[in-house]
């Protein structure tokens, strides 16, 4: 007789439909997200005039909702594994003027899209969007939402670092319609966290995830990275099982891109 499965117990990979064939099918290189637009989209010749022409063309399709992205590049400290375009400063006053520049850009784009203001996707990435204090982040979003509006069923998403994100951040975002959230975990193993200079506890992530769920966020994601220093299959499996026990809606697992000749912060991993 088969014993009933305990819903609180983690399932084996095979029980979740994850087979070796499935892993091998998707075990291949693909484009990585480290900036927006992604690297493959960059090209010479994107002048202000060309940008204005593209916006004018976009405005001719008023019924098509926009996909919008705001890059908030600031972080309090450097994570050694990071390959994103970030600005490191613990001095909040240095990052505050960037919000004024974003408001100017929002106005520039809105002026060129007078007939196309609805969006189906809004994403805040970084950097660390929740680097900014909740009220400042909320004020920026209010400014944006006065000029652009979500269409029914729109996805409003944010990337969060559990070390600097507070429940107040989640409250402010939820009050403005945010319904998707991604928590950067990478790995829960203390030795790995120390090696990549990103020390955070399981409880920090769990508390935020549970609060997000209580607020009605319907798309809760956790990011993990494999290939980090001092990881082993066994310790990484423990991190995976810890995440599964939190019951996020999804988990994204990325390979570590070790490119110290491009990202100088990764050279410290070599030295250590």
From TrEMBL:
Molecular functions (GO terms): 4 iron, 4 sulfur cluster binding; coproporphyrinogen dehydrogenase activity; metal ion binding
SUPFAM superfamilies linked: Radical SAM enzymes
SMART domains: Elp3
Keyword terms, alphabetized: Iron, Iron-sulfur, Metal-binding, Oxidoreductase, S-adenosyl-L-methionine
GO biological process: protoporphyrinogen IX biosynthetic process
GO cellular component: cytoplasm
Pfam families per UniProt: Radical_SAM
Keyword Ribosomal protein applies: no
Broad class of enzyme this protein falls into: oxidoreductase
The enzyme's E.C. designation: 1.3.98.3
This protein's record includes keyword Transmembrane: no
Stretches assigned to the Radical SAM core domain: 60-272
InterPro entries hit by this protein: Aldolase_TIM (IPR013785), Coproporphyrinogen-III_oxidase (IPR034505), Elp3/MiaA/NifB-like_rSAM (IPR006638), rSAM (IPR007197), rSAM_sf (IPR058240)
Protein's recorded name: Coproporphyrinogen dehydrogenase
Organism annotation: Eiseniibacteriota bacterium
